[in-house]
Design brief:
The chain is of the alpha+beta class. The protein has one domain: Creatine Amidinohydrolase (Alpha-Beta Complex), CATH 3.90.230.10. 27% of the residues lie in helices and 25% in strands. It has four helices and 16 strands. The strands form five sheets. Strands 1, 2, 4 and 5 form a four-stranded antiparallel β-sheet that branches. Strand 11 and strand 12 form a beta hairpin.
């Protein structure tokens, strides 16, 4: 994992804040009757015109959208489409990557479309808890295995499963940098974190079994049993003593999770 300079870290703060602002902006539009294609167009216009930035996922390894919209049993990399109409009770993850001055911020949030079921609400809540518990561990000297372990332990204690084929990643000038950040594992194993490292934590937690499969579009990942999946993501900086959440939204900035020095 690349250690960033103070100048690079400041640019990542800017990119992270811009990415967070996209998730804040789009929330009002996540309502029954809207298509995921329309959500993509709103985000694209906002990123390019309002933020004067680059939607980093657009064209990345051929991905056709500027956001990922993963609906219900879609685990990740859902492609926006005018054929996918949100309906009451749906849950959807919107994943945003924004590039500004050569650096990338990457973040995602779960949205509820109208009133959702209690079991969907619980899955969303526990998945976010997995993310927060992992973030609270971050500091120089801990291992990536510590992060994966706490996520796996919390998810499985609620009888959920952790997707293992996909995980977090280093991030900086490229959206996907080394290393891979697994959301399962054993304590005191894996890479040791250092101050100045930046990476994402983005647990994907399933209501049913952990098995997933690719759809024919080569991007969309779904649960094999077609049960719900949830995901939350933040870009994290390892500080000299703890962490900074570079993609913290305003609704999180007053919480303990935004920054710990």
């Amino acid at each position: 994992m690349l250690v960033k300079t103070p100048e690079e870290i400041q640019k990542m703060r800017v990119a992270g804040r811009l990415a967070a602002s996209v998730l804040e902006m789009i929330e009002q539009f996540v309502v029954p009757g809207v298509t995921t294609g329309e959500l993509e167009r709103i985000c694209r216009k906002f990123i390019i015109e309002d933020l004067q930035a680059i939607p980093a996922s657009l064209g990345h390894h051929g991905f056709p959208g500027c956001i990922c919209t993963s609906l219900n049993y879609v685990v990740c990399h859902g492609i926006p489409s005018d054929k996918k109409i949100l309906k009451q009770g749906d849950i959807v993850n919107i994943d945003v990557t924004v590039k500004k001055d050569g650096f990338v911020g990457d973040t995602s949030k779960m949205y509820c479309v109208g009133k959702i079921t209690s079991y969907a609400e619980r899955l969303i809540r526990v998945t976010q808890e997995c993310l927060y518990k992992a973030i609270q561990l971050v500091r120089p000297g801990i291992h990536l295995g510590d992060i994966g372990h706490v996520i796996q332990q919390h998810a499985e204690s609620h009888h959920y499963t952790v997707v293992r084929e996909f995980g977090g990643h280093g991030i900086g000038q490229d959206m996907w940098e080394e290393p891979h950040v697994p959301h399962f594992g054993k304590p005191h194993t894996g890479l040791v974190l250092q101050s100045g490292m930046t990476f994402t934590i983005e647990p994907m937690i399933n209501l049913g079994k952990r098995d997933v499969r690719h759809l024919p579009d080569k991007w969309t990942i779904v649960t094999k049993d077609r049960k719900l999946s949830a995901q939350w993501e933040h870009t994290i900086l390892v500080t000299d003593t703890a962490y900074e959440v570079l993609t913290a939204r305003n609704e999180e900035r007053e919480t303990v999770y935004a920054t710990r020095q």
